[in-house]
Design brief:
The chain is an alpha+beta fold. It is built from 7 helices and 12 strands. Helix 2 crosses helix 3 and helix 5 packs across helix 6.
Length: about 280
C-alpha cells in the first residue's frame, strides 16, 4: 500500500484511497498524481506534492494480470465519478477478479452508527476481499464453508496466499495513534469469519477520521478535540462488526465468474447459505 509512510510520519491522509490489482499499483499511483496536478492548485510554495494511497490484492487466478489492462483513464474516471450514496458491491473495480474463501469475492461495505449517548458517530467499512480457504469460512458462527465444500477454487492442500484490503472511515474525532488502534480491530472482524491471515496473506488496513482540526494562523497551530481512550470501545465494536458484515456483503453480492484460461469461481449460493443459517437457528424470521 503506497503512501503509508507519510501517513505514519504526519498522521494525515490527503486524497483518495485507490484499490486495484497487484500489478497495476504503479499505473494507478502515477495516474492519481497526474489527475491531482491537472485539477488542483499547487501548494503555498508553488509545488505539486502528492503521495497517493494505493492498495492491491492479487487477482491473477481470474484476471489476465500481466495484460496490464488498468489504464490511467480508468483512474481518472473513477476519481471523477466518486460520489456519496450506496456503494456498488461484488464484482466491481479492484474486486472484479477477487476470490474470497474460495467463493467469488469482491467489494463489500457496511457501517454502524453509535447511539446518541455514545456520540452518534458513524463507522464505515469498505473491503476488497481476496483471502481465505473454504473450510475456514464461518458466518454468524455457522461453519458455512464446511457445509458447502464443493467447487473449491483451489486444491485442498493449498496454503493461504490471498489478501484483503480494509478501509475504515469515521466521523469520530480521533488522533492518529487512536486510528491505529481502530485499524487493529478491523483484523478482528476478519477473524470472526474464520480467516487466520496465513503466511502468504497480505492483509492491509487504513483508517481515517473526517474530523478536521482548526488552524489558528496567528498562533500557527492546529487545535482539535478528540475522544478519550476510555470512550473508544463503541468505536472498536462498530469497526469489528462493520468489517465482518462488509466481507459477508461482498460474498453475497458477488456473482459466479469465468476468467482467464476458462477458470470458473462460483458465487456463494444464497439458498445454501440460508439453509445453513436456518439449520443452526441463525436465520432471522
Amino acid at each position: 500500500m503506497t503512501g503509508t509512510a507519510w501517513i505514519d510520519e504526519s498522521g494525515l491522509l490527503d486524497g483518495p484511497v485507490l484499490l486495484t490489482n497487484t500489478h497495476s499499483v504503479g499505473t494507478v499511483r502515477d495516474a492519481a498524481i497526474a489527475w491531482r496536478a491537472k485539477h488542483g492548485p499547487p501548494d503555498a510554495e508553488g509545488y505539486y506534492w502528492s503521495l497517493p494511497v494505493v492498495g492491491e490484492t492479487w487477482d491473477g487466478e481470474l484476471n489476465d494480470i500481466n495484460g496490464f489492462h488498468v489504464k490511467p483513464d480508468n483512474v481518472f474516471r473513477a476519481i471523477e465519478a466518486a460520489k456519496t450514496g450506496p456503494v456498488t458491491e461484488g464484482n466491481v473495480g479492484g474486486g472484479t477478479g477477487s476470490i474470497c474463501f474460495e467463493f467469488k469475492g469482491g467489494i463489500g461495505t457496511s457501517s454502524r452508527k453509535l447511539p446518541a449517548k455514545r456520540g452518534g458517530f458513524t463507522v464505515g467499512a469498505l473491503v476488497q476481499c481476496n483471502c481465505g480457504r473454504r473450510p475456514q469460512l464461518s458466518i454468524a458462527g455457522v461453519p458455512v464453508g464446511r457445509l458447502i465444500p464443493e467447487q473449491r477454487a483451489y486444491g485442498e492442500e493449498a496454503d493461504e496466499t490471498g489478501s484483503i484490503l480494509i478501509v475504515i472511515g469515521t466521523d469520530a474525532p480521533l488522533l492518529p495513534h487512536q486510528l491505529k488502534r481502530v485499524a487493529r480491530r478491523a483484523a478482528m472482524g476478519l477473524a470472526r469469519l474464520g480467516s487466520v491471515s496465513g503466511n502468504g496473506s497480505g492483509d492491509l488496513f487504513v483508517v481515517f477520521s473526517t474530523t478536521d482540526p482548526s488552524w489558528d494562523a496567528a498562533k500557527r497551530r492546529f487545535t482539535t478535540s478528540y475522544l478519550s481512550n476510555d470512550d473508544l470501545d463503541p468505536v472498536f465494536e462498530a469497526t469489528v462488526q462493520a468489517t465482518e458484515e462488509a466481507i459477508v456483503n461482498a460474498l453475497v453480492a458477488a456473482e459466479t465468474m469465468t476468467g482467464i484460461d476458462g477458470k470458473t469461481v462460483i458465487a456463494l449460493p444464497h439458498d445454501r447459505l440460508r439453509k445453513a443459517l436456518e439449520k443452526f437457528g441463525k436465520l432471522a424470521p
